Amino acid sequence: MSILIRFSGKRIAQPFKSVICSSRLISQDQKNPLDTNKNSNPQHYDIIIAGGGLVGTALACGIAKNKVLSEKRVLLLEGAPPFKGFSGGQYGNRVSAINNCSIELFKSIGAWNRISSVRYKPVKQMQVWDASSDALISFNHDNFSEDVACIIENDLMLDAIYGQLESTKNVTILNKSMVSSVELRMGGNTKNIVCLKNGDSMSCDLLIGADGANSIVRKEMGVDVFALNYERMGLVATLELVDPGDNSVAWQRFIPTGPVAYLPLNDTMSSLVWSTTPNDAKRLAALAPNEFVDAVNEAFWKDFPKNDIVTNALGALNSIMGSNNLANRQYPPKVKSVVEGSRACFPLGFLHASSYVSTGVALIGDAAHRIHPLAGQGVNLGFSDVTNLIKVLSDAVYAGAEIGDKHHLVQYEQSSLIKNVPLMIGVHGLQRLYSTTFFPVVLLRSLGLQLTQNIPGIKDIFLKRAIA
Ligand SMILES: Cc1cc2nc3c(=O)[nH]c(=O)nc-3n(C[C@H](O)[C@H](O)[C@H](O)COP(=O)(O)OP(=O)(O)OC[C@H]3O[C@@H](n4cnc5c(N)ncnc54)[C@H](O)[C@@H]3O)c2cc1C
């Protein structure tokens, strides 16, 4: 595992050839406002959002839908070509476990109707177990009365948010618009200047860095960053199951190379996230489909070596607590096939910026924090940033403050840190705890997991943290 503290603040060269193209709000026959303002007199916006991923797009929509902020002129800059929309049909291989707070955000910006009318899969229970021992934990609400999470395709979320942005007046979206550098207000300027790769520039009072884990905005802020490369890849794939059924359980097994998880998509399909070494991920991605299916089934079903001391200690703990782990265990569905072309690999890492804000600038989503997907929380934390930031900005503007005022932005930082830091430390700790088969660690984690499973109060705390 490599550790990096403090990025130097200098940018990595971008191989992308950027061309300003029209967005939804700037049609081909309209004059692009940027053309008349090249460099000398940059077009001014109240807010520029750098990065139109799930988090940046949700923020643009949330600002436009907020009564106090809706008159603010917003520019959303995205380096990639225009989003092609969600076509339905085959399930996408990028899906997320979405918690209640994020669903509330979707409802507040009007995006939930589209998502819920197309498709999503409620998860009623999560079962997590250790391949190196008999320890297991399951999360569900009493009598399965509420969902633990919902599995939603990333493209459908983006489509639903874009659908809402179409009806807003004050948001301009520019695709193929890679931010190459920024001059920040915190450096003494009266406004932020944002320069694009093609030489165009624009200015704003508030610049939001929603440009992901390699954020240029964060680098220009010069904040310290604590970053770890887990030297693991997340292999994703869409799987077809042998037996159709209710399929409302999310399964995660910690095997020696890392966690492997199925997230349910419908009665017959699940989405795989398999965290493993880069070489193993490459090997798995290249296997013939039937060999890959065998490898997935083996990862969930194979008996890995267990230490007798751990097995006996767990047995003793369970008999003291009156629980029978093996009897409570449920077994995951077997996989029949993998959808062609659905396998893809993503690097996994941990990152946390020491500060999310300064005068006229704020970071949200993966630009501020990035975590391992084992708890399915990364984009949920980003959506929680969006909710916090919209509240702080709207309170500030309502009180007559200037939109980039640092005193107000600090409130956003504080409310986000309170939520993000404990969760990030917890997820990172789990990643470390489960990345070894060293028997004393296996013993401790197995006893810990079993105690958590058997003491409802502790388990409820974990469940509340994950879904709220
Ligand atoms: C395998 C895997 C599974 C995951 N599963 C889950 C899950 O179940 N639940 C969950 O909550 N999270 C999950 N996550 C995490 C989640 O995907 C991320 O946290 C989330 O996508 C971050 O969104 P973002 O918008 O902040 O950043 P990004 O998705 O990185 O978006 C950044 C955007 O900015 C653009 N951009 C970058 N640089 C520039 C620039 N210079 N100029 C202009 N535009 C730029 C990019 O093109 C991109 O569109 C998972 C992650 C992985 C890898």
Element layout with pairings:
Layout: E1 2-5, E2 43-50, H1 54-65, E3 74-77, E4 95-98, H2 100-108, H3 112-118, E5 121-123, E6 125-130, E7 136-140, E8 149-153, H4 154-165, E9 171-174, E10 179-183, E11 192-196, E12 201-209, H5 216-221, E13 225-241, E14 249-255, E15 258-264, E16 269-276, H6 278-286, H7 289-301, H8 308-321, H9 325-328, E17 335-338, E18 344-353, E19 357-358, E20 361-363, E21 369-370, H10 378-398, H11 406-433, H12 439-454, H13 456-467
Parallel strand pairs: 2-3, 2-12, 3-9, 6-14, 12-20
Antiparallel strand pairs: 1-13, 4-8, 5-8, 6-7, 10-11, 11-12, 13-16, 13-17, 13-18, 14-15, 15-16, 18-21, 19-20
The structure holds flavin-adenine dinucleotide.
Which molecules are bound in this entry? flavin-adenine dinucleotide
Question: For the terminal residues, how far apart are their CA atoms?
Answer: 31 Å
- SSE-based structural type: alpha+beta
Give the uncertain stretches in residue-range form: 5-38
**Gyration radius, to the nearest Å?**
23 Å
Structure summary, number of beta strands: 21
Which word captures the global form?
globular
CATH topology: FAD/NAD(P)-binding domain
CATH superfamily: FAD/NAD(P)-binding domain
Number of helices: 13
CATH class: Alpha Beta
On the 0 to 100 scale, the average pLDDT is 86
Describe this structure in words.
There is one protein chain. Helices cover 35% and strands 26% of the residues. Helix 1 (54-65) runs parallel beside helix 4 (154-165) and helix 3 (112-118) crosses helix 4. Residues 5-38 have low confidence and may be disordered. The protein is an alpha+beta fold. The protein starts with a strand and ends with a helix. The protein is built from 13 helices and 21 strands. Bound molecules: flavin-adenine dinucleotide (FAD). The site of flavin-adenine dinucleotide has 32 residues, from helix 1, strand 4, strand 13 and helix 10.
